[in-house]
């Protein structure tokens, strides 16, 4: 397998692919200097012996990988995923599925549908890496275990990461973090549909909030509140999910052997889980897309619909 864009979040993808047994045969970067630096960083994480490329098409012709993990900047996701799919590769794409500032939502969605269509026609796996889908599944399991028979009527999710000098831009924050929270809703309610008329937003500075009703096929309506942000003081990361009255805090932890894992803290106890990204990559490697092509397109549609609502009220 190959990682396109193995700096930043991409290096963690590469590490988990290797730990899960895949051969990371190559990485692609923007320049010879940057890709060499990235390779050094990967060697500090696992025994990386792959080749280095600065051109995606050259890599695809030379390596003919089974899987391509697209972790390049979002405005390059479309071209990189399309090239990999047309070369016959299964593709896992980092969130957001694709995004380019200034491009109309309709055009972005058309591109996403084109990718899904290519994958469908060629019978290739094409999935979105929004690993909080795994957390949503785990929290639902905990809810069903400890609150048996209690229907879910409301969901609140809050994700925030350190600002680290980045400017206040709630639109960019939403595009970056909302796909995770939308993936959580998908894990909880696979057939849920956002009512456009119910969308309310409050975007300001380092905070992006959205509230809406999720309609289920049986007529049930779920009150949903999503909040994405950047922290400047206090906890560096915030990862919480509230189902009805129960709050689940999702933290990073380590197993006794030192390997990274997730921990869910809630009133029912503390529960260690497989690292969320590792779990998603493990399943993809085994042939399963947790967020497959149709779900990936729906994730982008939801993110953009709420972004459009926020733009109208700005």
Summarize the structure.
The chain has helices spanning 9-19, 32-43, 56-63, 74-86, 105-122, 132-146, 170-188, 276-285, 293-313; strands at 2-4, 26-28, 51-53, 67-70, 90-94, 126-129, 154-162, 193-194, 200-204, 207-215, 221-231, 238-243, 246-254, 260-266, 269-274.
Biggest β-sheet, characterized?
A: 9 strands, mixed
Q: Based on CA inertia axes, which overall geometry fits?
A: globular
CATH class of the largest domain equals Alpha Beta
Instruction: Tell me the series of helices and strands, N- to C-terminal.
Output: EHEHEHEHEHEHEHEEEEEEEEHH
Helix content: 40-55%
CATH topology of the largest domain: Dihydrodipicolinate Reductase, domain 2
What does the average pLDDT come to? 96
Oligomer: single chain
Task: Report Rg.
Answer: 19 Å
Beta-strand proportion? 25-35%
Q: What structural class do the secondary elements suggest?
A: alpha/beta
Gap between N and C termini = 43 Å
Number of helices: 9
> Any idea what the CATH architecture of the largest domain is?
2-Layer Sandwich
What is the total domain count?
2
Sequence stretches where pLDDT stays below 50 over 5 or more residues: none
Number of strands: 15
